[in-house]
Specification:
Helix content is 21%, strand content 31%. The protein is α+β, with helices and mostly antiparallel strands. The protein has three domains: 160 residues, no CATH class; 165 residues, Galactose-binding lectin (Jelly Rolls); 151 residues, Jelly Rolls (Sandwich). Strand 10 and strand 11 form a beta hairpin. Helix 1 crosses helix 7 and helix 3 crosses helix 5. It starts with a strand and ends in a 12-residue tail after the last strand.
Length: 522
């Protein structure tokens, strides 16, 4: 690689690195690094430390704990994760600068045997390009200025200048944005937005505290922890929580005073935060209370995971709709302590429908299902109690018999997180496959159970066999005008009366009318 100089100053000034920051941003946004989020985390960490004049802190242990989310007990003699990722990073950078980034005026290198990055400035983009394209035509004085520059070279120079100016302008605007001013006044954790690491996204799921991505029971990927500032990563590899088919998602978490600054495209989003108290405690209300902020405004004043879930090691979630990025293009989430340390297990940000929550469809099965209308039903979630089983009998009276292959039975509660400012319709799907069959015997009156929403009776002694007209027949029961609790919950209970209650699938529909994007709610 031809170079004019390598930036290796011992005490660099942050304001002197606008071009280097722009190059880092270009690398992170490349396809090669979008497909390798862990490498992006390592590269961002070592470069930001270098820009801040803290190159002496770029050590294997710090990279493991602060960039990759390893616990404070990390032992580099036993765990080679940093060395492995550094090897991959060197290889990926080499490939990048041999292809997509071959004409960049600044190129990033991670030297062998070291973790401090180097920023090489090429003598001239046109010369570098010529050397690669025509190595046999190189003269004895490759650094001699060329009398005429190609249009391509001029375009590259202009583009580089625009990129540098845009990065500086974005940083200037963010520092003076109203959202940042509100954050400072409300005193959530301070967070200098890392523009170099910001890659605009439209949908993201993050496993808080995790150094690795996790694939859930629906096949969706929850990325390793990113976009955070503050707090610490914690984990318990054997933790088994109730209410999820993906317990691995709740075996890591971020704890302390922390925040997330997530770059988003313009639009309306649904934000869901997921929690699970990792310790089984009795009488532990008010042990862990904290405040949650979205874009500088408090949305939960005294959040208590144990009180919300009713027990430790139980999944609980909170959902908000109509969330838009702040003026700087970021979604800012902050967690500040009141009594005890804030904790977050996971978060998801997905595009929403302005004014209305997207339909929630849950099938009591281990895999997701796409029905005949093209609607996607997630695998079982938000449940407490009961047992999940498979049914193989063919079901009549429905275009989607496969929806009834799974069943949860017992004493059941489904606690669905919804925004509290609307009313909802809950649709239950049943098919009796035991009573009235050759194996189960009986028939009408053999299974009776009640359905309640937030303690209010919706149905007394439901007899699925009788209402459906026999066994192996689909039954759909809809209940409208359901109001959530003030803390945004629809707690749907199926209480056994005679034999077990059961459920095959559940839908939650927001009754609020959707409104055109950009139109405020009256």
């Amino acid at each position: 690689m031809s170079e004019a100089a390598a930036s290796t100053r011992s005490n660099p000034q942050p304001e002197a690195f606008q071009a280097e920051r722009a190059e880092l941003q270009a690398v992170l946004q490349s396809e090669a690094f979008q497909r390798a989020p862990a490498l992006g985390l390592v590269l961002t960490y070592i470069c930001e430390k270098y820009f801040a004049g803290s190159a002496e802190q770029i050590k294997e242990y710090n990279i493991a704990v602060e960039a990759l989310g390893r616990p404070a007990s990390f032992d580099q003699k036993r765990d080679s994760i940093v060395r492995v990722e550094a090897h991959r990073l060197r290889k990926r950078l080499k490939e990048y600068y041999e292809s997509e980034g071959r004409n960049h005026a600044i190129q990033i290198e991670l030297p062998l045997g070291a973790y401090v990055p180097r920023f090489h400035r090429l003598a001239s983009p046109s010369i570098a390009e010529a050397e690669r394209a025509h190595p046999a035509d190189r003269t004895a004085q490759p650094d001699t200025p060329q009398p005429r520059r190609s249009r391509r070279t001029l375009w590259l120079a202009v583009a580089a200048a625009v990129l540098i100016l845009a990065s500086g302008a974005a940083l200037f605007l963010w520092q003076r944005s109203p959202a940042r001013a509100r954050d400072a006044g409300a005193q959530p954790p301070s967070q200098p937005v890392n523009l170099a690491a910001a890659a605009t996204v439209g949908e993201i799921r993050i496993a808080a505290g995790s150094a690795e991505s996790i694939r859930d029971s629906d096949g969706l990927v929850w990325y390793s922890d990113r976009y955070f500032k503050g707090g610490k990563a914690a984990s318990e590899p054997t933790l088994d929580v109730a209410g999820t088919l993906t317990p691995a998602l709740f075996r890591t978490w971020r704890e302390g005073q922390f925040r997330y600054d997530i770059p988003l495209k313009a639009g309306a989003y649904e934000v869901t935060l997921w929690f699970a108290e990792p310790v089984l405690r009795s009488g532990a209300d008010n042990v862990r209370t904290f405040r949650i902020w979205i874009n500088g405004a408090p949305v939960l004043e005294e959040f208590d995971i144990m009180t919300e879930a009713g027990a430790g090691q139980v999944v609980v979630a909170r959902t908000w709709k109509d969330i838009t990025p702040a003026a700087d293009g970021f979604l800012h989430l902050a967690f500040t302590p009141l009594g005890g340390s804030p904790l977050l297990s996971a978060l998801s940000v997905v595009p929403g429908t302005p004014g209305r929550l997207r339909p929630i469809r849950i099938a009591a099965r281990e895999q997701p299902y796409t029905d005949s209308s093209g609607y996607m039903w997630s695998s079982d979630r938000f449940f407490f109690g009961g047992k999940l089983v498979k049914r193989i009998e063919p079901i009549q009276g429905t275009a989607d018999p496969e929806l009834y292959r799974g069943e949860r039975y017992g004493r059941l509660t489904y606690t669905i997180p919804v925004p509290p400012d609307s009313t909802y319709t809950a649709i239950f799907h049943f098919a009796e496959t035991w009573f009235g069959s050759r194996a189960g015997g009986g028939g009408a009156g053999s299974r009776l159970f009640d359905i309640l929403c937030n303690g209010v009776l919706l149905e007394r002694e439901l007899d699925v066999y009788r209402e459906a007209g026999g066994a192996f027949r689909a039954l759909r029961k809809a209940y409208r005008g359901l109001r959530p609790t003030p803390n945004g919950k629809l707690s749907l209970q199926l209480v056994p009366g005679r034999n077990y209650a059961f459920l095959n699938a559940l839908e939650i529909l927001d009754e609020e009318r959707a409104r055109p994007a950009g139109r405020p709610r009256k």
